[in-house]
Design a protein that fits this description.
Chain A is α+β, with helices and mostly antiparallel strands. Chain A contains 11 helices and 13 strands. Chain A has an 8-stranded mixed sheet with strand order 5-4-6-7-11-12-3-13, with helices on both faces. In chain A, helix 10 crosses helix 11. Chain A is globular and about 50 Å long. Chain B has 204 residues and is an alpha/beta fold. Chain B is 42% helix and 18% strand. Chain B has a 6-stranded mixed sheet, sandwiched between helices. The longest helix of chain B has 15 residues. Chain C is α/β, with parallel strands linked by helices. Chain C contains 21 helices and 24 strands. In chain C, the strands form 6 sheets. In chain C, strands 3-2-4-5-7-6-12 form a 7-stranded mixed sheet. A 6-stranded parallel sheet of chain C has the order 16-15-17-18-20-19, sandwiched between helices. In chain C, strands 9-11-10-13-14 form a 5-stranded mixed sheet, with helices on both faces. Chain C is globular. The chains are: A alpha+beta (381), B alpha/beta (204), C alpha/beta (648). Strand 2 of chain B pairs antiparallel with strand 8 of chain C. The complex binds flavin-adenine dinucleotide and iron/sulfur cluster (SF4) (4 copies). One iron/sulfur cluster sits at the interface of chains A and C.
Amino acid sequence: MKIFGATKLAETVIQTELCSGCGACIDLCPYFRSYRGKTAYLFPCTREEGRCFAYCPKVEVDPDGLSRFLFAKPYDGHPLGNWRSIHVARAGARVKRQPFQSGGTVSALMYFSLRSGCIRGAILTGRKGLLPVPQLVTRPAGVWRHSLSKYTAAPTLAALNRAIAAGHEALGVVATPCQATAIAQMRMNPLQNRSFRDHTALVIGLFCTWALDFRKFEAFLAERVPLKDIVKIDIPPPPASVLEVYLQEEKREFPLDEIRLLVPDTCGYCLDMTSEFADVSVGVLEGHPELNTLIVRTERGEEIVREAQRQEYIILDDMPVENREHLEWAAGNKKQRGLRRCMETGRLNGEAGTACLRLTGEVTDRILKNGRNGKESPCHT
Amino acid sequence: MSDVKLAKDPYNVIITGVGGQGNVLVARLLGGMLAKKGFLVAIGETFGASQRGGSVMSHLRISRLAVASPQIPRGRADVIVSLEPAEALRVLALYGNPGTMLLTNSHPIYPVGVIKGELVYPPVAEMEAAITQILPTAYFIDATARALALGNSILVNIVMLGALGRLNVVPFNREDFQEAIALRLATGQLAINLKAFDEGYGMV
Amino acid sequence: MSYLIDEGKNASHLLMGNEAIVRGALEAGINVAAGYPGTPSSEIIECFSQVAKERNLYVEWSTNEKVAVEVAAAASFAGLRSLCVMKQNGVNVASDFLLHLASSGTRGGMILVTCDDPGALSSVNEGESRLFAQLLEIPLLEPGDFQEAKDIIPWAFDLSEKIRNIVMVRSVTRLSHASGNVHFGPLPTRVAKAEFRNSGPLLDPETGPMIAMIVGAPEAQHGPQQEKMKRAAEIFETCPFNTYTGPATPELLIITSSACSLYSQEAVSILGLGERVGILKLATTWPLPQRLLKKHLAATPKILFVEEVAPTLEDHVKVVAAESGAEIGVKTFFGKKSGHLPSLGELNPDLVLMALSRIFAVPYEGAPADFSAAVKALAARYAPPRGMTFCPGCPHRASYWSINNALKLDGRGGFVCGDIGCYVMGTMAAGFNTCKTLHAMGSGSGIASGFGKLKQFGVDQPVLSVCGDSTFFHAAMPALANAIHQRSPFTMLLMDNRGTAMTGFQPHPGSPTNVLGEATPALDMEKICRAMGAKVEVSDPFDLEKTRQKLNHLMEYADGAKVLILRRACALSPERRGKKEYEVTVDESRCRGEDCGCNRICTRIFGCPGLIWDGEKKVSRIDEIICVGCGVCADICPAGAILRKEVA
Ligand SMILES: Cc1cc2nc3c(=O)[nH]c(=O)nc-3n(C[C@H](O)[C@H](O)[C@H](O)COP(=O)(O)OP(=O)(O)OC[C@H]3O[C@@H](n4cnc5c(N)ncnc54)[C@H](O)[C@@H]3O)c2cc1C
Ligand code: SF4
Ligand code: SF4
Ligand code: SF4
Ligand code: SF4
C-alpha cells in the first residue's frame, strides 16, 4: 500500500467531505487543524509521504494488515471483527461518581487504569458548550469530567498527538471506530520511523453508527433549546428512536429521522460499528440504557478488564445470546451499507492514494452475504 | 568647474542592489558631488513598490554638454556598481558591454524564491569566475563583511562608494565625499561613514 | 535651510523632478498646497512642508484627492495661488469635483499636478491622466525635462489666472523620480492677502459666488469654459516650452512630450540622424497648438509619435492633419498604431532606437550580441529572480497568516476583497494568496458589502475585506456605512499600521500629527466604526492566535458588518525602524527542517526574508542582517526551534 502526502490527503479526503474529523492528522505539524468539528488544511505541504496520510482512517485502510498486526489473524469480515469475549458490563462498587452515558464502563475502566498505573495518561473527550474538546487527563479524578457521549465528530486524536509530542507515554484513549482505526495505523509505524515507539497502552473503542456534523447539530439545537442549559444528550436504545436532550429542568425529544439529516456523508462509508481495532469496545446494551455491551479483543485489553473486575471497578455479566445476535445483525448491516457505498464510488480497492479501503474479493463477498438488504436496523445499535 | 576629463560623454553609471540597501543614497551622493563640480547630471531611479525587497536601480549620467535622459540605453553602461552580486549580473545582462567596469559586493541577499527553497542561489565564487571569463574588468569585494566589521551592515553602500572612488573612473574624491555626506547626515555619523569610505577605498 | 529656497544668484541644484516642480511653485509665489500621497507624487507635498514656515505656505496631506482639490480650490477662490497634487489614480477620485470646478472656473492661479506612472512601476495600473484634460476641458502642460519642470509652473500659474481656470501639469515617474541640474530663478517677496468675494452678481467671475452649474443653461458656464479653452489654445501657439530641434525639412518628424522627448533626443543622436530627423517637443498637449503643428507637419512627409500609455498626441495630431490635408498633403504616421512603439508600458531610449532603426533601416545594437547573449545566459543561471514580498517584521505578513488560517478553519470558502496599499501583496504568495479581488482605494470594502448581499442567489460564504488606515479615511468609510446600513454581513480587516506606509508614512486623519509635525486631533477609528454601528474588535497582528480567534469568532457569530482592527506599526515606520524587540535564533538541534512534522513551514510558507533555508545543513536559520527581531516566527514553529529573547 502506497503512502502519500498531505496534498493528496486534502484532495481525496478533506475536499471530498470524506473526513470524519478524527484528529489523527492534527498537531503532528502545523498544516492541519480542527475547527468546530472539521479538519482544515491550512497551507500546502509538499512532502511526498506523511504521517497525516498514513494515519488517516478514511484513505488506504488495509483491515487485513491491521488485523494481523493487532490480533495475529486475518481479517474475515465478521460483523464484530476479532474478539476474545463479549460481556454485559457496568461500573462497579468502587465507582461512586456519576453521570455516565449508560453503564459507566468506559469511565470506570479509564479511572481504574489511571489509578492502577496501567496507563499514565488518558485521552478523553469533554466538551465546551456543545463542542467536543479532547484533552489529556493524568489524574484519575479528571476522568469524571469527561464522561458522557458527545454525538458529534471530535478531533480526539489531536490530543493524542499532542500528548505524544510532549513526551507522555502509556496512554489510554477512548475512541470512536474511525479513531480506533487511525490509532491502530499509528501503532504500526507506517513510515518505518526508526525512533518510533508505541505510546498507547489501552484503546477503548466506542460503538458508533454515526457522529453528527457539529455545525449542523449546533444550529439545529440552537433553534430549539437554550444551548447553555444542556446537561446531557442521549440516544436511548431501541425501540425509542429519538434523540433526548436533558436540560436543567426538562427533557426534550427529537425524532431520529430529523437527526439523521445532520449525519455527514463520511459516516456512510464506514464499515465499522464496534471499533474493531480497539483493545476493548463498549456500547449500550440493547433494551437496557443503564448497561453496556463490552467486547474484549486483545490480550492487553483482557488483562485490564480482568483486573478491573477483580478490584470491583466494573461488574461483568454474561451476554444473552439474543442480544449478541442482534448486535451482529446491526453491525453486519452497517458493514454492508458502508461497503456498498465504497463500491459504488470506486473507493473499494480504488486507484492508489484514493481508496477508502482494500479488501480481498472473498472478504467482500462474505460481508455482502452477512448484511441484510442494506437496510439500517430499526434500532440505534 | 573641475578639469577632469570624462572617458565618454555622457558617462553612464548604474548603481544597483536590493531595496533597503541604500543604493538610492549612493546615487544621490554621487550626483550631488558631480553636480557640485559643474557636471550636468541626470539620475533615474526605480523605487516605490520595488523597494520592498525587490531589485532597485539608479541610472547616473554625467555630462559636460547636456542633461541626458534618465534612462541609460541598453548595453551602454560604463560602470556598474552593485550592492548585491545577482543584481550585478542582472543589470550587466541588460546594460553591460565588454568595456563595462563592474564593481560588486559579493555578499548575496537571497530572493524570496531562494529563501523558500524553490530557487537556488549558486555560490557567488562560481558566478565570479564565470563573469571574469567574459568581462575583463570586474571587481568582487565582500563589502557586507567589512560593513559588519564596522558595526552595521547598512554601511555597505558607503564601503562600495569608497571602492568606486579608488577605481578612479568617476571624477570624485574623498574630500568631495566628506562634503557631500556632511550635508546629509548628522555629525555623529560622519566619522563612521568616512571610515567606511576609507575601508572600501582600500579594498580594490 | 532647505536648498529648495536657495536665493543665491545663479543658484543651481541637482533636483528631482518633483523638487523642481516645488521650486517652480515657490518662484511663482504659491500659497496653498494639498495632496494625497501616491508614488511617484509624494515628495511634492513633503518638500512644500519643509519650507512651509519660511515661505508662509499652508500645506496639507488631505484625506483623499478630491478633498485635496477642494482645499486648493478654496485658496484659489480667495484669490491665492494653489496647487494640488496626486498620482494618476487620484485624478479618478478627484474627477467629480474637478468637472464642476472646471465649470465654475477659478480665481487665484490653480494647478493640478498629476504624476503618472507609465509601466505601473509602483501602481496597480498605468492609468493615463492626460485624457482627463480633454474630459474636463482644461489646459494640459507636460514638462520635458527637469529645468522645464520648474520653469513651466510659474507659466502655468499665469495661464490659469489669464483664463481663470485650473491648469493641469502632468509629470511621469521618470521625471518625478529622476534628477537633473536645475537653475533657479528668484523667489518673490509679496505677502499674500486673501479674500473670498461672493456678494457680486451670480456669474461675475471677480465678485460673484463660485457656482458650478446653472441648471438647464449650459451656455452660462459651459460657453465661457469653451472660450477659455480657445484662449488657452491661442496662448499655446507661442508657448516657449514647445520646442523644435532639427533640420527645416526633416525626413521624419518626431512629435513627443514629457520624458519621451529625452529618449527621442538620445535615440536620434546615437543613430546620428540629427540631419534627417526633427523633434517637435510639445509642452502644451491639450488643447493642441494647431497652427504650430500644421507648420511642422507641412515640412515633413513622415511623422513618428513618441509618447507613453494612451496615443493621445497620435490621435489628435492625426485629426489636425486630416483637417488640413489639402494644405499639407498626405502623411505617413508611425507610432503605437503602426506597431513601431508598444501600446503599453513605459518607453525608453531603446524602444525609440528600435523604432527609428526600423523606419530608417539602419541597424542598431546596444552591445555586441554574443556578449549580451553570454551574460544573459549567466544571469539565467546565477541570478534567481527577485519576487516581491513583505518586509521582514511586516505586520501584514502576520495578519495574512491569521486571515488565511481563519478562513481555512472556517471552511466555508470565505475570501478577502483586497485593497490598495502594501497589502496588495495579499493577492500573491507573500500574503498566501488570500485576496481575491483588487481594484481601487476603498473598493475592497464596497465589493465586500455587495458580496454580502448575494445570499439569496447562493453566494453565502463569509466575505472579508482588507483596508489600510489611510485607505479607511480615504474611501472605505462610505463602503462601511453602506454595509452597516444594508446589513451586509462582511468583516472589514482594518490594517492599522500607523501611517500611509506604502508611500513613506504620511500622516492621515487618524495620525496625531500633521505634515508639519504639529499635533492634530487623531480620529479614533475604533470609536468611529463603533459609532457607525459595526461590531468592532481590536487585535495585535503579532499575536497570531488571538487574531485568528477573534476573526473566526466575528465570522461565525456576529451578523451585520464587523470590523477587526489589526494594529501594529509598519516595520519601516519611524517608531519601529532600527529597534529590535527580540534577539531571534534557531536551535538547529530542534529544527525539524523538511521532516514530516514541519516541512519548513517558516521558510517555505511564512517566508519572512529574515529566515533562510540552509539547504546543506537542512535547517532553517535567521539571517541576522535582515531579521528585525519581531519574534513572530517563533510562534509559527511547531518544534519550538525558533527562540526569542527580549532585547533589554
Ligand atoms: C458519536 C457517538 C456515537 C455513538 N453511537 C452508539 C451506537 O450507535 N450504539 C451504541 O451502542 N453506542 C454508541 N455510542 C456509545 C455510547 O453512547 C456510550 O459512549 C457507550 O455506551 C459508553 O457508555 P459509558 O456509560 O461507559 O460512557 P461514559 O462512562 O459516560 O464515558 C463516555 C466516554 O466517551 C468519550 N467520548 C464522548 N464523546 C466522544 C466523541 N465524540 N468521540 C470520542 N470519544 C467520545 C468520553 O471521553 C468518555 O470517556 C456512541 C458514542 C458516541 C460518542
Ligand atoms: S506530510 Fe507530515 S508535515 Fe506534511 S502535512 Fe502531513 S503530517 Fe504534516
Ligand atoms: S486523519 Fe481524520 S481528521 Fe485527518 S483527514 Fe483523515 S479523517 Fe479527517
Ligand atoms: S518552523 Fe521551526 S522546525 Fe520548522 S523549519 Fe522552521 S525552525 Fe525548523
Ligand atoms: S523575528 Fe522572524 S519573523 Fe520577525 S523579522 Fe526576524 S525572521 Fe522575520
